[in-house]
Amino acid sequence: xxxxxxxxxxxxxxxxxxGDYYLTPISTKDVIxxxxxxxxxxxxxxxxxxxxxxxxxxxxxxxxxxxxxLAWLELCAKYHQLFCYILRSKENGSYCGAVYIYPIETFYPxxxxxxxxxxxxxxxxxxxxxxxxxxIFKNLLDWLVKYWKFPRKRIYLRNREIPKxxx
Length: 167
Description:
Elements: E1 16-18, E2 21-25, H1 31-40, H2 42-48, H3 63-78, E3 83-89, E4 95-103, E5 117-123, H4 125-129, H5 133-148, E6 155-157
Helix pairs in contact: 1-3
C-alpha cells in the first residue's frame, strides 16, 4: 500500500472557497459530467498538463475507464494517498476544471529528493480563453500552501515554476 501524502489525522477539505470558484472532491458520482468535460476539452487539458499523444488520456478515455479512474481517485483520497478536486464556478456551479495533489513519487520518483508534492490542474477552454488561468493558479497555490501546509519550495508545479512574486 502506498504511504499517505498527509497524516491520517489531516482533514482534507470537502469544499474550498477560491474567489469566484470553489473546489469539491471528485467522486464516481461525477463520472458522466467529468467524462463529457474531458472529451470536450481534451486539447486544452493535454496542453496544460504537459501534452501527450492523441492516443493517450484524455483523448481516448471511455466512460468505463473514467469510472475506474474516479473510483481509484476516491479510494486514494480515503487513505490520504492523493487528492483530486473539481473546480466549479460559484456563479452557476458549472465544472471549470480539475485539481490534482499527488505525492511526487507517483509520476516522478526521480524528483523525490527535491519535491514532496506533484501539483497540477487544468481548466476548461472557456476559462482559459477568458483569461482566468493565472488567477485560478495563484488562488490554488495560495490555498495549497495555506491549508495543506506544504512548503512552496517542495511543490513541483507541472510544466512551470513558482513565480518569484509568490515565493
